[in-house]
Predict the 3D structure of the following.
Amino acid sequence: MSDNLELEARPGLPEHLRDLLKLFPRDSWETHPNFGALTRFWLDRHGMFRDLMTHLQTDARLMADGNMDQQTYAHRLSRLGGMFVGELHGHHNVEDHHYFPLLAAMETRLQPGFDLLDADHHALDEHLQAFTDEANALLTSATKMQQGEPADMSGGAARFSDLLNGFERFLDRHLVDEEEIIVPVLLKHGEGSFG
Ligand SMILES: [Fe+2]
Ligand SMILES: [Fe+2]
C-alpha cells in the first residue's frame, strides 16, 4: 500500500491502522452487542452527507445539460449546498473537540489514526472552500439572470459537477476510513464514556 497517507492519495487505511478493524470487521458491526444508539446516529450522519452529495451531483449534471430550470437549480443549490457546508463544518467540530480526544484516550495505539483524520478535516476544509466559491458564483449568475443580465449557468454547473466528482471521492475516502477507525474503538470499549 502507498506510503502517501494524504486524503487525495491514499487508497484506504494503511496496514498499521487496521489491527482493531481486523478484530471488528465492518460486516459484524451492527450485530455486535456494543453497537448502540450513538454509533447508529453517527453513521447516519455520514449517510446524510453521502446523500446530500448525490443530490448536489445530480442537480449539477441536470443544470449543466440544460435539463433543469435555472431558478429551481439556484433555489436547490442554496438550500442543499448551505446544509452540506454548515452540517459538515459542525460535524467536524464535534469530532475534533469531542469524539477524537475521548476515543484516542481509550485507544492510545490509534493516535496516528486520529492524527490522520484530523489532517483529513483540514484537507476537506480546502475542498469546502472551493465548493463554496463555485456555488456562490453559480448563485450570483442566477441572480443576474433573474435581473435580465446575461450569465452562463450551464458552464458554471459543468465546472461545479467536475469539482463535486473529486470532492465526492475524497469525502467518501474520509468517511469510510473514519468509520473503520472509530467504530471498532466504540465496539471494543462501549459507548458509556460518551454519556
Ligand atoms: Fe470526520
Ligand atoms: Fe465523521
Q: What stands out?
A: Residues 134 and 159 are 8 Å apart (CA to CA). The radius of gyration is 19 Å. The pocket of fe (ii) ion (ligand 1) is lined by residues 92, 95, 117, 121, 174, 178 (CB under 6 Å). The mean pLDDT is 95.
